[in-house]
Amino acid sequence: MNDNETMFLIICSAMVLFMTPGLAFFYGGLVRASSVVSMMMLSFGSLALVGTMWMVFGYAISFANASDSSFVGIDGVFGINLDDLFLNSHAHAAIAHNDGAGLAFAGFQGTFAIITVALISGAIADRVKFGAWMIFAAVWAVLVYFPVAGWIFNFSTTNGEVTDGGWLVYNFRVLDFAGGTVVEIASGASALALALVVGKRFGFTKGMHAPHNVPLVLIGVGILWFGWFGFNAGSELLADGTAALAFVNTLAAGVGGLISWVAYERLFHGKATSIGAGSGAVAGLVAITPSCAYLDPIWALVLGIAVGVICALAIELKYLLGFDDSLDVVGIHLVGGIVGTLWIGLLGHDLTGRVVGLFLGGGFDQLWRQAFAVLVIGGYSFAISFGVGKLLQKTIGMRVRSTDEIAGIDSVMHGESAYSAADPRWSWRG
After folding, report:
1. How far apart are CA 131 and CA 389, in angstroms?
2. Is the pLDDT of residue 186 over 70?
3. Is 220 in contact with 22 (CB distance < 8 Å)?
4. What is the rounded CA–CA span in Å between residue 280 and residue 264?
5. Which CATH homologous superfamily contains domain 3-217+225-410?
6. Backbone angles phi and psi of 276, in degrees to 5
7. How far apart are CA 234 and CA 224, in angstroms?
């Protein structure tokens, strides 16, 4: 990797890191005015905590390589490279050999870990203790994200073929370009588990918890969309034709999701809403994440259009099934991630150009592999999250007191209010 390619990765890393504050705005606008600070702090807390863990030992777990002498563990499943603790080996290469490629890659992947953990918090808005969330986030990163990232992201290729790596990609030849399984399905399944553990908000009925600040939501969507180009195109690790394809497909799926969601709202509910527009764009971006380099642009657009409607319908499940996924992490990220992952097996090709999609003549081979990854990562993430959440709920308790929840948890958890009343000393009395 030359200096220009390293710079490309650094820029993409900054874009992806910016997504976590964008997520904080997005989630913050969707909750009550008395819970904005708490909601945003769940994202910023994840940024600080997971970022630290990643630098100390997270990267050493996710990208452990059995061929290295310092490797300890089970190849392709779970292990750690002791030389990569504190990013030592890559830092040494950057300083001693003026080679920053490894360090830039480690930073890039760290931004993925941060936002994946933050995504889960949307399912438990308005009712969870900050300290309990931070403990959950730390345990979840170790038990779920770090190993699962290794199953998907930690691979080597020769002439477009995987020659080494995590067991899902190497042994089962699962295709996931930018993390639809690791980021979207793992976070969505975990969000469902936590929503079940924590329980419903008081007054949980359809239409009872309207967003308090729509412009804040749309600002968040805009930041997320901007960062998503770095997320997807940056996963190529260099500025080439594949990165360009990922970029264009990210645009196509996002606009497709936006159009179809608002069209669905207008047709069946009478009005096209700005929240629907933002949610549709995010749904399209979620779905294209695993498939952004494996689709022709026309199929990326169709994917966005399809997933906009599918996710709009999916968010109704929480009312039908009785679980409170506060900000629709399940309906958008889990469902959208599943659709995007399976879409590769329906209309995709691999990086060599070989057709793998069923509808293009590629047969069922890739489709069952994609479905297998969905089941494995979704099931594993749900099981671990449910167990950890139950343990925390039974010990320190995850949920705040009912009186604090009703009043709003910002002042209780953080001693702050998002919108302070005006100082009467400065008011105009006429």
Report:
1. 13
2. yes
3. yes
4. 10
5. Ammonium transporter AmtB like domains (1.10.3430.10)
6. -65, -40
7. 15
Asked if the model's pLDDT at residue 179 lies above 70, the reply is yes
What average pLDDT does the chain have?
Answer: 94
DSSP 324-336: --TT-HIIIIIHH
Residues 6+ apart with CB under 8 A from 254: 225, 228, 281, 284, 285, 288, 304
What is the CA angle 228-149-365, rounded to 5? 90
Residue 417 tokens read as 């209010």
How many angstroms separate the CA atoms of 167 and 174, rounded? Answer: 9
Among residues 140, 284, 119, which one has the least CA distance to residue 187?
119
Residues 198, 386: Cα–Cα separation, whole Å: 10
How far CA 304 is from CA of 194, 327, 372, in Å, comes to 28, 20, 23
Burial 195-204 (b: 16+ CB within 10 A, else e): bbbbebbeeb
> How many Cβ atoms sit within 10 Å of the Cβ of residue 269?
11
pLDDT tens per residue, range 43-61: 999 999 999 999 999 999 9
10, HSE (Cβ side, Cα atoms, 13 Å): 10
Contacts of 399 (CB under 8 A, 6+ apart): 127, 128, 129, 198, 199, 393, 405
Sort strands 161-165 and 71-74 into parallel, antiparallel or unpaired.
unpaired
**SS3 state of residue 248:** helix
Distant-in-sequence, close-in-space partners of 426: CB < 8 Å, separation ≥ 6: none
Handedness of CA 195, 120, 216, 398 (dihedral sign): positive
Give the residue extent of every domain in the chain.
3-217+225-410
